[in-house]
Structures are given as structure tokens and as C-alpha cells.
Amino acid sequence: MIVHIKISLEEVESKGREYRWERPNQCPNSCNGKIWGHGFVYRYFRDCTNAIPLKRWRCSVCHIILQYRPLGFWRRFQDSCSRIYSALLERISNGKWPPDIPRQRGGYWLSKFTEYAVLHEMIIEDDLRKSVLYFIEKEFCFI
Ligand SMILES: [Zn+2]
Questions:
Q1: How many CB atoms are closer than 10 A to CB 130?
Q2: Helical segments of the chain, H only
Q3: Other C-beta atoms lying within 10 Å of the C-beta of residue 131
């Protein structure tokens, strides 16, 4: 289970495994199990030179594994969701991707967004821009 927490990626990158992670208070399954450290997974994020060690935890009773992930970053994406949405808005409004977004990457985001919005009947008034703004407002994730 992924748990999004507010952290500074720069700070975690500079301190590495010495970063002091805050232990979860309790198991999300409410089993009253004790939460123990369960190592790290390394993930890449945009603007970070190295892979970042993200702390994992394990419940002693139900054995669920919790993996921390920075707030605002979806699973399997290196860019923050706000950066993804702002790139989508620029592409839809101006027909061009922001210069720092590779066309292939942006195209993948746009295709995933459109696929999700169509599948869930969330295209607002046949306007992709309005649909993206709606997703931002509701903090929806399209993956
Ligand atoms: Zn548990």
C-alpha cells in the first residue's frame, strides 16, 4: 500500500538512507499491529540526480507493507501530478508541449488522460481543457 506523505525530495536525496522518516502511528487496517521498518525501495524522480530511497514499513500482525511516496507524485510517474496537469493544459491550449517535456512523454500522459476521461465519461462539454481543469479541481488521478 502506498502512503503519500509530505517530504522534501531534495532533503531525502541529500541525506539518503540517513533521512529520518516518521513512523506511521498505526496500521491502516486498524489491527493494532506494531509497525516496523521494512527497508527501502529506490525510485527516480524528475529533477533528482540519483534514485531516491523511499522507506517501507510492515505491520507485525496483518503483514501489510506500507511504502512511502512523496505527496503529489503518482505511482510509476517521475513527474509530479501538478507538472503533468500543467503540461497537459499548455499542450491543449497552445498545441505545444512545454520545452522541458519530451513529446513522447507528454503524448503518453495525454493519451492516458483521454483514455481515462472517456472511459469514465468525464469529458466536460467535449472540451479537454475543461476536463483537465475539473480533474485538477477534484484532485483526480487518471492512472
Ligand atoms: Zn496491520
A1: 13
A2: 9-15, 81-94, 103-119, 128-138
A3: 23
All three cell numbers of 111: 493519451
75 pLDDT band, cuts 50/70/90, is confident
**Model-level pTM greater than 0.70?**
yes
Compute the distance from residue 29 Cα to the ligand 1 centre, in Å: 5
Q: β-strands 65-70, 2-5: how paired?
A: parallel
SS3 124: strand
d(CA 73, CA 49): 17
Nearest 10 degrees: CA dihedral of 47, 49, 51, 57?
-60
CA of 2 to the centre of ligand 1 (A): 14
Give the distance (Å) from ligand 1 centre to CA of residue 30: 6
Distance (Å, rounded) from C-alpha 128 to C-alpha 78?
A: 23
CA distance 34 to 119: 40
